[in-house]
Here is the input.
Amino acid sequence: MTDADRDARLARRRARRRRRLEAAATAAGFIVGAVRRAAAGVAGLLLVSFGAWLAWHPAGYMVAGVLVLADVVWSQREPRARSKPVPAKAQQPVVVELRNRS
Here is the structure.
């Protein structure tokens, strides 16, 4: 094996390692960002349920359950279809007729 072949093989290995490292760093950055965004919500959930728990112990568990359930429902709902606004010329005025009932 010549020096040029060895150098080419070493360059390919380094390129593969660099790509793997970049992929791992991207995944780690995504996870850290998601955890950071969720941390404020989790802290709020804990504080609200702890405050309710201080007032009445079962209320803390109920509040925590309701908040977690609301979060699950909120995250599972489908985004609404974005409809185009109706142009002003196409809108018709609403006419209400009042009839005398005498």
The helical segments are 3-55, 57-76.
